[in-house]
Design goal:
The protein has helices at about 45-55, 55-60, 75-85, 95-100, 145-155; strands spanning about 15, 20-25, 30-35, 65-70, 90, 105, 115, 120-125, 130-135. By secondary structure, it is an alpha+beta fold. The protein has one domain (about 15-155): Glutaredoxin (3-Layer(aba) Sandwich), CATH 3.40.30. The strands form 2 sheets. The protein has a 7-stranded mixed β-sheet with strand order 2-1-5-4-3-8-9. The radius of gyration is 14 Å and the shape is globular. The mean pLDDT is about 95.
């Protein structure tokens, strides 16, 4: 499935690090930033999510709910969130269904791993419509935080 700008975002149900089920549809009326990332505790993923943590007030001011999503278990993500003092939810897509729905899976990754989440960013507006999509092929690249900010500003 390919994600298209100005089309409805695929809904999902995933668990956060405190074992609470989270759905995209429960955020109707809010802008949502989805950040798919390959693996907790790796350098680029840590840099990306700590950037969000350090700028969380800006995302909050832009009325955006932020979710980090990876294929790591909710237990691994809980430890990662705690160690990095992340101030937003991390969601476990352990079964890879949401990453697949958002066309954000590496078929082959490092060390023979298959089906790992790509680094990808999506902004879904208050009506559940995709307004921004960035899927990175290189896991070492970071999302375009300026473009994300500009898109969220336009949605105000």
């Amino acid at each position: 499935m390919s994600i298209e700008i100005n089309k409805p975002a695929p809904d999902f149900k995933l668990f956060n690090t405190v074992k609470k089920e989270v759905t995209l549809s429960e955020n109707k009326g809010k802008n949502v930033l989805l950040l798919f990332f390959p693996l907790a505790f790796t350098s680029t993923c840590t840099a990306e999510l700590c950037n969000i943590r350090d700028n969380y007030a800006m995302y909050n001011d832009l009325n955006a709910v932020v979710y980090g999503i990876s294929n790591d278990s909710l237990f691994v993500l809980g430890k990662f969130k705690e160690e990095q003092k992340l101030n937003f939810d991390l969601l476990s897509d352990f079964n890879k269904t949401v990453s697949a729905a958002y066309d954000s899976l590496y078929p082959d990754f490092i060390f023979g791993m298959q089906g790992v989440s790509k680094r990808a960013s999506f902004i879904i507006d208050k009506n559940g419509i995709v307004k921004y999509a960035e899927i990175l092929e290189k896991a070492s690249d970071l999302p375009n935080f300026e473009a994300i900010k500009a898109c969220l500003e336009k949605l105000q």
